[in-house]
Structures
1.
Amino acid sequence: MIALSLLNDYLYCPRRAALKIVEGWRSANAHTARGDLVHEHADLVGYEVVKGVTLLRALPVWSERLGLNGKCDIVEQRADGSHCPVEFKLGQRRKWVNDEVQLCAQALCLEEMFGRSVPCGAVFHADSKRRREVDFTVELRRQTELTARQLHELLTPGRVPPAVYKPACEECSLFQTCLPKATGEDGRATRLAKQLFQT
Ligand code: SF4
């Protein structure tokens, strides 16, 4: 089983997901610290009923088929027994495919666990306090399943992808340990290593 939140990391940067799974690297930066604050309430296991909808907080979920497990920030359980996962994210209301894939993975887990269809979910954007509905289309489901397979392939020995410096690296909490400018293909450390045994 792999944590389904790593699907989000994989789509951000496959090396980031590999460093977390294979090397066990974890680091915090301002973004992760703010993310932790956003999740503070949703991380408290429990439930409440609001306007006839039961809100299940920090619900553990898993899928044997996809080899994923994790938890949903909130699952709304309607009177008819249907479920709708809601994921809390930092930032303004904006479509990010990595957030949608993470949410869709939660839906696939819920479908396997409860044996009923989960057609849509939502991302709650903390900064703008706005909610964005996400339909779990055939395409999004396919992309989620493909990403889950790619994530499992990272566990094959020697599959940690090399660093490739890009703008997203500046926001990455692993920047200080990954050192993409130095260790990337065109990085200084790589160039120096190649020259080491040249005559
Ligand atoms: S610093 Fe860049 S290359 Fe390294 S893990 Fe983060 S996003 Fe990926």
Note: The pocket of iron/sulfur cluster is lined by residues 13, 15-16, 19, 163-164, 168-169, 172, 174-175, 178, 180 (CB under 6 Å).
2.
Amino acid sequence: MFTSIRSMGLFGMQSYMVNVEIDVSGGLPHFDIVGLPNTSVSEAKERVRSAIKNSGLTFPVSRITVNLAPADTKKEGPVYDLPILLSVLAASRQIKPIPETSAFIGELSLSGEVRRINGALPMVIEAMHNGVADVFVPKENAYECSVVSGINVYPVETVSEIISFLDGTAEITPATYTPKEENFESLVDFADVKGQFEAKRALEIAAAGGHNILLIGPPGSGKSMLAKRIPTILPDMTFEESLETTKIYSVSGKLPADTPLITRRPFRSPHHTVSPVGLSGGGVIPKPGEISLAHNGVLFLDELPEFSRTTMEIMRQPIEDGVISISRAQATVTYPCSVMLVCAMNPCPCGYYGHPTRECSCPGGAAERYLNKVSGPLLDRVDIHIEVPPVDFGKLSDSEKGEKSSDIKERVNKARKIQQKRLAGSGITCNAHMTARQTREFCRMTDEAMQMLKDVFEMLSLSARAYDKILRVARTIADLDNSEIITDEHIAEAVQYRSLDRKFWGK
Ligand SMILES: Nc1ncnc2c1ncn2[C@@H]1O[C@H](COP(=O)(O)OP(=O)(O)OP(=O)(O)O)[C@@H](O)[C@H]1O
Ligand SMILES: [Mg+2]
Ligand SMILES: [Zn+2]
């Protein structure tokens, strides 16, 4: 007898429908799975056999062939355990035929428990798009999947439970998503940082426009301290951004059990010893790396020159494109990685080059060489460079608190909303991602602003790339100022954030 049950597969973040077809016929007992399964799928045979027995049912003594269609796509992981088990039971008439509007995913334990899987969210979204009305997922994945509307998500804990449900002898309540009261209370706050007004202002602009930023300064000046507080002022995520980021965490199995939807922009700070695979992603069927886990959030590279040249080279293209492709012998997978890059570094190996009171002990030219280590691969992608000078003790001991993160965030949110409105339908949501053409289109300037930009351009002999960066940053400054037109004041401020052009490669 032939039956077919619907399920879903995953390739990177891309999900697709899979039909689990089964044929049970007479002949010598045999159990075979075809349709390009990898070993973890092939092992389903043993898990299904045991789970059936241990749930008090009978494994048929027949010739059983399971085909996972489409047969030309490689199948990975144990997600097909549950549909295979149900297909065996349906084909051997131990349960009623299963309607085509239902779909199933889940790994089985030998005792018949349904276990958590990775990537349930993109699979349920795909099921919904394909007209599936009821999807049955492991209980531990149900909350994560409940954010998808237009489909009933049934949490399943054991094989016995789902069989009783399919027979109509027991109920399972579909999972529902109740958005949590946003509680973004953070242990750190910009109010903790004394002084550093210029750096804070630069971070506010960066957060508002999604600009990549480099903080440069001597040891102990508070660069790491400032960077760690960036999450407290990042703009709220749109639902689409949340869903995209959540999918990445779902696929990589890193979604916290109590967080069905990631509503806070991620902040990832990989150590400089991070491996290329850890950063870009990898594995037989590649999983997302740090750069994708930071999607729609911040990728913070502290002590930037300590990262190897190879590591920086790997990041170059993805940071520009917002997507990363990982090629392996078996497959090429693409993951999104639209990140705001935040880098911190000392100006030279000893750290004190340009320090007001301490002497730099490095040999001549060391500061330039140090910067050159990072110049090509990454600095080209950075819109804002800011110097973080040491804070004098008088300011540090000052008990007066600085501005609170929540106040800064409010301004950031306002400025981001203006950008989203202006850029609606263009596929981007912030100024930093504007193409050269969009930059020309959306950065209207007053005559004075135009003249100032021209003067600065000639004075500093800036590249065309730097020109666009200044314009994009000026656009964000104008948005924070609620001004549709860019004025000379906005340009003047934006130019300040190109300190490296002026200082080191101003030529
Ligand atoms: N502006 C400031 N306000 C309050 N505390 C500060 C400030 N700057 C520095 N500190 C104190 O100094 C410590 C060291 O700062 P931080 O680690 O951020 O320096 P850094 O610039 O990252 O140095 P390094 O180059 O060595 O990494 C902080 O933990 C904090 O206690
Ligand atoms: Mg530091
Ligand atoms: Zn030095």
Note: The domain at 434-502 is CATH 1.10.8 (Helicase, Ruva Protein; domain 3).
3.
Amino acid sequence: MAAGKAPPRAAILALIIAAAPPIAAAAPSAIAAAGPASGFLPAPRRLEILQPWEKRAGAKPPELVAGIYELDYERRSFAEGLAITIDDAGPNKYLAKTLDILRKRGVKAVFFIIGSNFLGKDGRPMPRAKELLDRIVDEGHEIGSHSFWHRRLDEKPYRDDAAALKAELDRNEAAVDRVLGYHYPMIYFRPPNGAHSTPGYELDRMLRERGQYLTNWTITSFDWCMRLKAGDPDRLEPEAVLARTVKQAREESGGVVLLHCFPSTVAILDSILEKLAAARGEGGALSFTTLGELLRRKYASLKAGD
Ligand SMILES: [Zn+2]
């Protein structure tokens, strides 16, 4: 994104980024070794972003690269703020219902959009695509990029092919612009499955160059486990999803909440928001905020040497 064309908000964020030391090109191990001694960025920590079946297979969650783009480890600065993020929406009644519930609750969210959900095979916007993306923007939410195909970006071909990775990112941005009919600068990027940090991996650097924040989450609803078949040991009932989301939000004292636009999630979204609004963290009552505000708090705490 050329500086002259950057919208005011992105320009402000770009300034903050420019003041930060270059870290994205370093390998995760180098950053981990530097740890808090770097004086600016905390050591990366591992997050539980694996699917339950991946855990059973013995997979380890990837180590987060301590990139300035990340919101997902700096929880000390969240100050009981909860930013709602909603992934994998399509142009359907579930997205409409999600927007209705958010409006009723007065909550603003970032929707991480998969472009291929919104374009038909002919490359044209699907029915309701524009109506619903317009609603996201008009009702004060934001659109983040979740890639065009929702394929793991830490696997082939993207893992070893920077051109393929760039094309995937470009394509999603073009898809959102195509639906909206104007250029929407997406400053948040969430990789499918949260997967991004293979050592030497290009995505972190590429996002930095594009002026985008790698944005994972700290509070996992595990809402996708409601979609598993009855009898599956990992299946969760709605009450369990509700309870663990609230529990984690309280324990983490705020952060970035991962939800999806699945029918089963939409069915309990109002209850989730109601329970979160009534919950308390370590420092007091939890309240809804935005990713932008969490970023501002994060940079303020880093600047203060927290
Ligand atoms: Zn997703």
Note: The first strand starts at residue 81 and ends at 87.
4.
Amino acid sequence: MRPIRVTVWHRQSLVQFAVLLTATLAIACGGAAAQDLGTLTPKPLPVLAHPDDPHTPAKELFGRETTPAAMPARSIGYYTHGCLAGGVALPINGPTWQVMRLSRNRNWGHPNLIRTIERIANKAPSIGWNGLLVGDMAQPRGGPMITGHWSHQLGLDADIWLTPMPNRELTRKEREEMMATNVVADDWMDVNPKVWSPTYIALYKMVAQQPGIERVLANPAIKKALCRDVKGDRSWLHKIRPVPGHNYHFHIRIGCPSDSPGCKSQTPPPHDEGCGKDLDWWFSKAVREPKPPVKSKPILMSALPAACRQILAAP
Ligand SMILES: [Zn+2]
């Protein structure tokens, strides 16, 4: 499947296309996946009988890699079709962050992503957010994942929970089983007023304003609330991109690093706030309600940049 450009999403009016796209996007960034329970006793995946078979889905190969490729850091390919060399792990505990769902081993990224998360985490207390609970980033060598996520393949994406970090270190069990906060109302038409607060607005603003952040993916209801509630400086609103799901977490995406010539940039988001007609489109019934995941053909190695084979083969 070819990468979907965000700029085309809003201009489509064909409902059929909308339904298909919505279903695709719902699994794109793990709308529900961040809520999947983890386990304290993860079992290694069975060894593949024919890893070199060209029909072996790339996710089965990258999903079995438990360590990064020992090479200089480099993001290769596109956000939805690529891989990562020299991945770095975000430490599971920082002064103002904790990593969740450790059994997934997805706290890896390009060093730029690690720095970005640490910067956001350091700033969080200044806007009244105690710290970050960090969900999925990338696998040690990036690439497609066996569960959840269309993107997150380059080590340039991360999911951050919409629950502030508690004032104590979470246990391993809590990190596998705790649930994040849903800020969206049950009818998906707006945020839940019992949960939504000025602190959420300050959080989205602070995150969107950090250097290197190209996009912050949020449920359309959250974008709607921001469009309505943000006063004063609205220059960052265009970076908040409406995407189904993303009601328990937001997804940050940084741009291609300068050390990664093989990284394919995404078209920058349009500069207008995105609060007009384009946003209304997301609230038609056909579009707004989450759909069961569509079965799509898995990505094969032949669809990834050739360099991703070397990443898999590297020590
Ligand atoms: Zn995501």
Note: Residues 1-28, 30-34 have pLDDT under 50 and may be disordered.
